[in-house]
Amino acid sequence: MKATAESTAVVIVEDDDAIGRQLDRALTSSGYRTFWSRTGHAGLVAARQEQAEVVLLDLGLPDIDGVDLARQLRADLPETLLMMLTARGEEIDIVSGLDAGADDYLVKPFSLTVLLARLRAHLRRRPVDRVEDALQIGDLTVETAARRCVVAGSELALRPKEYELLETLALNAGTAVSREDLMATVWDENWFGSTKTLDVTMAALRRRLEAAQTAAPSPRLPTVSTLRGHGYRLDPPAED
Prior knowledge:
CATH topology of the largest domain: Rossmann fold
Number of domains: 2
CATH class of the largest domain: Alpha Beta
C-alpha cells in the first residue's frame, strides 16, 4: 500500500503557455505542489532545489533538448519520477526518451485525466518513505508491515479494504484525501464500478472505530471527517 500523492512536489518543464497553465491548474487542484518552468535550465534548477518527486518534461524546449535534460535529471535525481510529455510520437523518439531515463512517455495531445491516473499509478508503486512500520494516532496503532490495527492492545477486526482505507487515511493523517485518490489507491484507477463502494466501506470502517471506542476504556481514537465535494480526512484525537 502506498500513500496518496497529496503535497507531492511536481516540476513542470513546458514552454507552451497554454499547456503549462493547464498542467499547473490540473495538478494544483489535485493537491500537488507545482513549480512551472518554461526553459530546460530553469526546470533543472527547480528540480534540484525542490528535490522534486516528479518532473513532467516537454522535449521541445527553447534552450536545451529534452532528451539531454532527461539524462541530466536522471543523473542528478535518480529517484525522481520522470514523465515525458511531447509531440514527438515516432517509435524512435519514444525509445530514445525511455532510454534517456524517462519512466513514462505521453504523446500530445493527451488527456489530463489519463495523465493524472498514470501519475497516481506510478506514485502508488513507489515505496513510502517512513522510519517505522507502525503509525501511531492517539491510541490507534496501524502496523503497516503486519497489515493490522490495534486499539488499546486489542486488534481491530477489519476487512481487507477497510484496513487499506484506514491505512491510506492514516498515512495522510490531518490531510484531505480526495475520493479519486482513495479509489485509485485502495481499489484501482481503472475501477469501472460505482464509487458507492467507497461510501459503503467508509461507513463500515466508521462503525468499527465507534465500536472500539466503546469497547476499550476511553481510548483516544482519530475520527474520519467527510469533506463534501472532495473526500475525507482522518483527524487525530483532540489533546487533553
